[in-house]
Amino acid sequence: xxxxxxxxxxxxxxxxxQSVSQIVEAAIGNGMDAVCLTDHNEMSGREAAxxxxxxxxxxxxxxxxxxxxxxxxxxxxxxxxEGYGDEGLKxxxxxxIIDLESFALIPAHPFRGGAPKVNIVEVIMRYFSxxxxxxxxxxxxxxxxxENTIHLARLVGxxxxxxxxxxxxxxxxxxxxxxxxxxxxxxxxxxxxxxAGDFEAGAPLYAAAELxx
Length: 213
Ligand SMILES: [Zn+2]
Ligand SMILES: [Zn+2]
Known about the structure:
Helix 1 packs across helix 2. The chain is globular and about 45 Å long. It is of the alpha/beta class. The protein has one domain: Metal-dependent hydrolases (TIM Barrel, Alpha-Beta Barrel). Helix content is 34%, strand content 21%. Strands 3-2-1-11-12 form a five-stranded mixed beta sheet, with helices on both faces. The structure holds zinc ion (2 copies).
């Protein structure tokens, strides 16, 4: 099952320039089997996601891209209250106020724009056992960012995911995807699949192969 794990709508993301319907249409057009809405520190797009899911008869899950002080973490799991990002919580604080076991957490773009985000790398090195994967490919990562992420993932033994990080129709949802080994119908099934490592990043895997040499 192909899923784009990382998209933004204008409902929940100030920087989002697309409706949930536009996200779903793009995801379907790009051959996805499911899509996940991950607005910044909000799940206010949830109703629109459920509506679009019914309208298109297509799985539309809602997660959250949480801004911890060190960087961005994609969180899939139970409903999260808003405002984590506004509080400027450190990851060490965020992890204490959620039920870690019921979430799949994936650091988004650990490297972005070529520059190492030292703080989030430190978080990944320290808490890697709490993460389901690292996001290695998206519209917002360069080839070098992906390479750096692949190296880091290998170092800590984490698998890779890809997600579009789509904010607008010009960089459409479904352009990057993660291939799940099994179909999932609910967020908790998605969490289980991610925590079990039952997936592969569906983006340019040649990059990983080259690095192995
Ligand atoms: Zn982000
Ligand atoms: Zn994002």
